[in-house]
Design goal:
Blueprint: E1 4-12, H1 14-20, H2 23-42, H3 47-59, E2 80-86, E3 92-98, H4 104-114, E4 119-121, H5 122-131, H6 139-142, H7 145-157, E5 176-181, E6 187-193, E7 214-216, E8 221-227, H8 229-234, H9 237-248, H10 252-267, E9 271-277, E10 282-286, E11 290-296, E12 302-305
Parallel strand pairs: 3-4
Antiparallel strand pairs: 1-5, 1-11, 2-3, 2-6, 5-6, 7-8, 8-9, 9-10, 11-12
Helix pairs in contact: 2-3, 3-4, 9-10
């Protein structure tokens, strides 16, 4: 048995992804997180522990639209979603419309471990965070001048936008995610996001919904998605990729591409996904020109790509 690990930092137009930071900056961030994940997989940590860990590192980096780098909703507030799933037994935990929590993915893990529910949102999720004694952070940890300016630009033209979609040049990226296969052959997936810029308060996208933005099953694959959440919800996107593996015998790359083809054909969807199958093969596919991702396949070299 060997291990595999993939992470992503959002999908979008490649030229937009390069407006906020250089390719070298993203490569440095992605590579560093992958190497820290590698250390934990090599010492025998579970896939579930490692995807939570890598997702939390991505949440801490303001390059990405999750955790500290989250975009603002129509009221100028941060509302975050996150979920993770264990491929061993299909256990999952998720949180939505969350504020003040540094690492939403860790609160989602607590929801899963508590066992009574899969998804908590809003005030209920915050009350659960207090029960778990998870530290909260003030608004100024999350809200930056760049995010305030970004919201104003989007509101000026009306509507909502992906974090990485250009209204004016220099916009940041979107949703983060991690998938892994550990030394025991177990799979896990995690996804976290700040959602859409200027979204209505209370809006929930695909990220915290099992089968839409995240899915993991030891018999098939682990999936983390990024893009317009409503489109992934309508196509049950992550589970569709898993079904391509289970019912059509596809490997990770074929299933990822088939999932994107289905997304485009049915709803003209925009976004991408990272996938690791039960054999440990790593894959990614997208309908956008850019998808920031990195991977370690079968314990091999560390790779990073934007296009």
């Amino acid at each position: 048995m060997s291990y595999s690990l993939m992470i992503h930092g959002g999908a979008g137009a490649l030229e937009d992804l390069k407006c906020e930071a250089s390719e070298a900056t993203f490569q440095e961030s992605i590579t560093a997180i992958l190497e820290r994940g590698r250390e934990r997989l090599e010492r025998g940590d579970s896939a579930l522990d490692v995807v939570e860990y890598c997702a939390s590192l991505l949440e801490n980096d303001r390059l990405y639209n999750a955790g500290r780098g989250s975009v603002l909703n129509a009221d100028g507030k941060v509302e975050m979603d996150a979920a993770l799933m264990d491929g061993r037994d299909l256990r999952a935990g998720a949180v939505a419309c969350l504020r003040s929590i540094k690492n939403p993915i860790s609160l989602a893990r607590r929801v899963m471990e508590h066992g009574e529910h899969v998804l908590l949102m809003g005030e209920g999720a915050l009350e659960f965070a207090k029960f778990c004694e998870i530290e909260t952070y003030p608004d100024d940890y999350f809200i930056t001048e760049a995010r305030i300016k970004q919201l104003a630009e989007v509101q000026l033209v009306g509507g909502m936008t992906l974090d990485h979609q250009r209204v004016k040049p220099s916009q940041k990226l979107g949703t983060i995610g991690a998938v892994a296969r550990d030394l025991q052959g177990n799979l896990a997936a995690a996804t976290s996001t700040g959602g859409l810029v200027n979204k209505r308060w209370g809006r929930v996208g695909d990220t915290p919904i099992v089968g839409a933005g995240v899915f993991a099953d030891n018999d098939t694959c682990a999936v983390s998605a990024t893009g317009y959440g409503e489109q992934f919800l309508r196509t049950v996107f992550a589970k569709t990729i898993s079904d391509f593996v289970q019912f059509r015998g596809m490997d990770a790359q074929a299933a990822a591409q088939a999932g994107i083809d289905y997304l485009v054909a049915k709803v003209n969807g925009e976004g991408g996904a990272i996938v690791i199958d039960a054999a440990g093969r790593c894959a990614a596919a997208q309908s956008t020109s850019g998808l920031i991702r990195g991977w370690i396949e079968m314990g091999g070299n560390t790779n990073c790509k934007l296009g």
